[in-house]
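Good morning C.,

I know you're traveling, so I'll keep this short. The sequence:
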Amino acid sequence: MGLRRKVTAIEVKQRGKHRCPSCRSLVRLERIAFGIWRCPKCGFTFAGGAWTPQTIMGKALAPEELKEVEAQKAKWKEAVK
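The tokens, ready to paste straight into the viewer:
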């Protein structure tokens, strides 16, 4: 795969529609700077990946999912006692 095709693939992902972590709307997020993104609908500014708003690791460790995991751990600890 040539360099131009790689750049085109990255830019298509970057400029596509993504889900805002705050309002959960599917919009074209604005890239303010390297890794800084803003939702045009609600104005929420957040840190993400350099070329895409959410990285693979960021998706794996989303705050909502982390809260669910912590709640599940607490339930297991109570069940063991």
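Safe travels,
E.
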